[in-house]
Design a protein that fits this description.
single chain, 9 helices, mainly alpha
């Protein structure tokens, strides 16, 4: 691959996270995967219907896209595979959910939570979203931890190995020069 120097690979597979990051991955990944599946199982309450109530354009399309991302990224987080890459769209997902569905509770104008307003209603209704946002940000910044497929891939294919693979496939370093 032209310009490949291993920086992307290193960024995606290295981790400064402790082994306890496994618990964060299981929590965050499990909830995202579950919520994504539920968007398809219960479309009126959690999928298209919810997106329509909030006022999203093309609610059927957006609910399906968000559901697919939550399932795919949730499974990647559970496995600890491309963790940083999978965490990024989930950070965006949670920021959008908080801004569009939970923040309006503060001034009593939430389409999803009629009759609720103020700090305590906001704090109660947004607790899971805030926890998911914090967990996703942690995984984005720290990585998957040592008990992950990312860690195994990084051990098996360190940067030097990736550069050697790239060099041999381009003909450099080949005994006959290709």
């Amino acid at each position: 691959m032209a310009g490949w120097d291993g920086r992307v690979w290193t960024t995606l597979t290295t981790s400064r996270a402790p082994g306890a990051a496994l618990w964060i991955r299981l929590f965050v990944g499990g909830i995202f995967a579950s919520e994504g599946i539920q968007k398809f199982l219960f479309p009126g309450d959690l999928g298209t219907g919810r997106f329509e109530t909030v006022g999203f354009p093309a609610p059927g399309f957006l609910a399906a896209v968000v559901g697919i991302f939550e399932i795919a990224c949730g499974v990647l987080l559970l496995l600890g595979l491309l963790t940083r890459l999978a965490a990024l769209p989930m950070v965006i997902d949670m920021v959008v959910a908080l801004v569009l569905t939970k923040l309006p509770i503060l001034w009593g104008s939430s389409a999803l939570f009629a009759g609720e307003q103020g700090w305590w209603d906001f704090a109660h209704e947004s607790r899971t979203d805030l926890a998911m946002l914090c967990g996703s940000i942690f995984l984005l910044l720290a990585g998957a931890g040592p008990y992950s497929l990312d860690a195994r891939l990084h051990q098996r294919f360190p940067v030097a190995g990736r550069q050697a693979i790239s060099a041999s496939s381009s003909g450099r370093g080949h005994p006959r020069g290709r």
